[in-house]
Amino acid sequence: MRNVGIIGVGYTPVFVSKRKDVNLAEMVSESVEAVFRNTGLSPDDIDAITFGNMQTFEGVNLPHLLMSEHIRAVDKPIIRIATGGTTGMSTLQAAYYYVASGIYDVVLAVSWEKQSEGDSQVGLAGIVMPEAMVMVQHGMDLLGGRGMGGMGGGSTGAAAYQAMSYLHHSGADPEHIDKMAALERSNAALNPYAHLRKKTTVEDVQATPFISWPLRYGHTCPTSDGATACIVASEEKAAKLADKVAWIIGVGCCTSDPSTANFIEGQMTDPADQTVCKIAAKKAYEMAGIEDPAKEIDLAELYDGFAHQSLMWLEKLGLCKEGEAHKLLDRGVLNIDGDLPTNPSGGVFSTNAIGSSAMNRATECALQIMRKIEGEHQVPKTVKKALAHGWGGLFQYVTVMILSDTPRKI
Amino acid sequence: MKAGERIVAHAVVPLDFTYNYRVGQYIERYIKALGEKKIMAVKCQDCGRVFVPPRKICGTCNRILDEWVEVGPEGTIEIFTIGHVKLNKGLVEKIDKPSIIAMVKLDGASSLLPCVINGLDPEKVKKGLRVKAVFKEPPEDSLFDLDHFEPVG
Amino acid sequence: MERKVAVVGYAMTRQASDIGVPRPIMLFELVKGLFDQMGITRDDIDTFVLCSNDFQCGRTISNVFEDTPVGAYMKDETKVEADGVMAVMYGAIRIMSGLYDTALVVGNSLGGSEFRPYLIMDYQLHPAYDRQLGILNEPVTAALQAKAYMEKYKITEDHLNKIAARLLRNAAKNPFALRGKEDATPEYIASSEYLYEPLRELHCYPFTDGACAVVLASDKRAKALTDKPVWIKGFGDSIEGYFLGDRDLSWSRSAKVAADRAYRMAGISNPAKEIDVAEISIKFASQEPIICEALGLFPEGSGAEVADRGLAEIGGEMPVCPSGGGLGAYPFSAMGLIRVAECAKQINGEAGDIQVKDVKTAVAHGQDGFCAQHNAVMVLSSEEG
After folding, report:
1. Which of C12, C42, C103, C140 would disulfide-bridge C216, Cβ 3.0–4.6 Å?
2. What is the number of domains present in chain B?
3. Domain that holds residue A25
4. Of A11, A300, A358, A23, nearest to A184 (Cα)?
């Protein structure tokens, strides 16, 4: 096993709801050009490419094929990874394995989504599309009542069950969700690569309508167009190519089964249980040699499609005790200048080009560690170890990555 | 359900979504030129190749392409196939009159353009045959403004 | 240094035009059967690599309902959305990283009964250009590729018919293949209808349901799991540009680059001599000589001679696709995995009627895209070396 680190990150110039001026390939190429610009490297330095998005969102099968030139992949090895919401992190983990194995030294990981070209809610509902269509054919009403009713409004319906369960078990109030939402949106206002960039107060959030109690419109993520490219390298190559490195010292991934949100077969388990997250985190901590994550982790970037999830993940990841996250929020611990800055980027909650969302958690951690954040959301404290988290599937996939300013001792 | 037991019921589920593709900066300019009966290509200043349809990157040279040149409207058939069927949403359907689909090297271009050739007996199509572009009149600002190709003369 | 990885178990379903069981049951029976046959449980598997495709499943995140049937519940799992050889490669790389000792790689596709392969391929076209125009589709691109090769090297349709006939005869002897014909002759192939000249119906892959599972293990664990590990000696993949008009279709640049990578890693300098059997993924008979030549199995432009002299026959100089290959069955995401499993079968002498004599080293190949835009090559061997 070799040490592997992130040596550069490139984003599309903006993450917005509609990039009308470019097509799929042209948009993705902007992130690749940005990472080469930021690192001073060229495609000649790259040994292989890992690539991910959720292809039903754009309706293009294996899109890496048609943009092979745009991502500078010609004559290079390339692998396409797709695991739903976790795609971005799974793609980055693939790059990690590529280098850790000794097969390749420098790997470019690319992830993206251009959600404006398709219908995201169709894309999301498409997870259960075959079942849903059969139910329609049998005369069921998908939008109301039982069964698929939970999927009304796409994933928000399913997330509402989770939020309810979380509030019940943690003792947090619905107002804590409003507060977390306001905190993250205000962080996003400082981040030039965030999509929804408006300084937001708790009252602003509370003025938005409910979609499915306890979730309001102001608790949900946008759909964005954008791409992220990230270069990882072996220790030896990183020493030659980069001035600063964010080392990947722990990776974890775990898969539950779809019953965590499976309204179809009616065998739903508690969507706020997320044992899967605890297992993934444990693996990553063990690999990183972290014994007390609550003490050792300096910053967290969590995959929060909905605002309650940031609080929930903090607990499941062991960054605080169960039922404590909302207390940290009240004490200001989660603020950019707090002890455990959480989603200083604004999170998925503010920027959501789905394929890249989970990768952006890791790239934001990396940039915070390198102190190369563009914008005003650089945290004041020194970040030695940061945790990036991804979430996806029918609530069933969790990926975790621990990044550090120093490599592992091997 | 027991192992080996056969299914008798199937659910037919057409997935017919509408997507809204942006054509991007290069195809946009290509389409606009077609309306003026011009076929525009991009030239790589490193390798000198001229690409049509135009696109942003020369993958071999890692260069953003920004030099536009006009190619055609005449060209030469390099490879062709005679179609005895057509595909309708992935299903093979017989056609009465065979079709000709060819890769045409437009004058001034380095890459070949996939084209439909009309006005020619399929028996007579051969490599090296000269063809010219036929544009739609009046133009409708779409890719279909380059309607088809036909033999020169 | 890099860790060694071996194939220690494999199983495939019968490849059919309608497999007749729902996907989760198909996967469960396949994988549970493999575990039972190997005497292991899912607890022995450290990491799971699935290989399927959202379009083929008609579902966003195709692996959502595949994880539990293959035993990945509460385990490390990921999905490769490409050819099966890529998935095996990624499984091997995960083991080589040192974090895992065993991996299960599972691919499946129901192209026979669930989706239309040519329509799925249409969705690979550039959505704002080629898909709009509707000039290109998969058989058209294959016909143009066939023409480019045949014109350059003076290959006739009769040679294509010979290739297809050989593959169908091989497939008839392979109990897992979907389409075979014991006494297939070039005349029989020529009696099928043209789609796009020079391609006839029997030059094209049949629409296939199927799944395949492969267990990989590190050198540390391999010998405890099987007496006959098949070692992955080398692998490589490569992609070329999308636009067909930029590519020289008479050969495969990306297959050559991929093979060069795999051979370098495996220490193979003369593939035609050192490789005993090849299992390649071809969708159309015309792709066989192009891929074989890129893989260095035959000299450039030798398609006519190979077909005339029967060099690729099971008893020939360089047996290619004793299983019948892509003309026997082509279950998209499972295709490359089946090629790897067939190579392992050959090396272990378990191939029955299609067994090639004295196989030590075999090469598996997989492809994606139009005219094989992305190729992956893997070298397998009985020798740990």
Report:
1. C103
2. 1
3. 4-118+228-403
4. A300
Within 8 A of C98 by CB-CB distance, chain A residues are 1, 100-101
Cβ–Cβ gap B87/C122 under 8 Å: yes
Q: Which residue is associated with the tokens 């680059």? A: C257
Mean pLDDT for A4-15 is 97
Structural domain includes residue A201: no
Residue pair B27/B50 in contact (Cβ under 8 Å)? The answer is no
Do A27 and A70 contact (CB within 8 A), yes or no? no
Task: Answer yes or no: is the ipTM higher than 0.85.
Answer: yes
Residues of chain C with Cβ-Cβ distance to B106 below 8 Å are none
Distance from CA of A108 to the nearest CA of C (A): 15
CA dihedral A284, A290, A294, A300 (to 10 degrees): -50
Tally of domains within chain C: 1
What are the backbone angles phi and psi of residue C154, rounded to the nearest 5°?
55, 55
Q: How far apart are CA A97 and CA A80, in angstroms?
A: 14
Cα dihedral sign for A275, A276, A281, A287?
A: positive
Is A8 domain-assigned?
Answer: yes
- Write the pLDDT tens digit of every residue in B72-111: 899 999 999 999 999 998 999 999 999 999 999 999 999 9
Residue B20 banded pLDDT, cuts 50, 70, 90 = confident
Residue B73 lies in a domain: yes
Distance from C-alpha of B151 to C-alpha of B145, rounded to nearest angstrom: 18
Predicted confidence (pLDDT) per residue in A355-408, tens digit: 999 999 999 999 999 999 999 999 999 999 999 999 988 778 999 999 999 999
Contacts across the A-B interface (CB distance below 8 Å):
69
CA distance A212 to A157: 6
Band of pLDDT at residue A257, cut at 50, 70 and 90: confident
Verify whether the Cβ–Cβ distance C67 to A255 is below 8 Å: yes
Domain assignment of residue A204, yes or no? no
CATH code of the domain in which C111 resides: 3.40.47.10
- Provide block-wise average pLDDT over 10 residues at a time, chain C (385 residues): 88 94 93 97 97 89 89 94 97 97 97 92 94 95 97 96 97 97 97 96 96 97 96 97 95 97 97 97 97 97 96 96 97 97 97 96 97 98 89
Q: Which of C32, C243, C290, C371 to mutate to test the interface with B (most CBs of B within 10 A)?
A: C243
Interface of C with B in 35-74 (CB under 8 A): 58
Beta strands in A96-199 (DSSP E): 106-114
Residue A147 predicted with pLDDT over 50? no
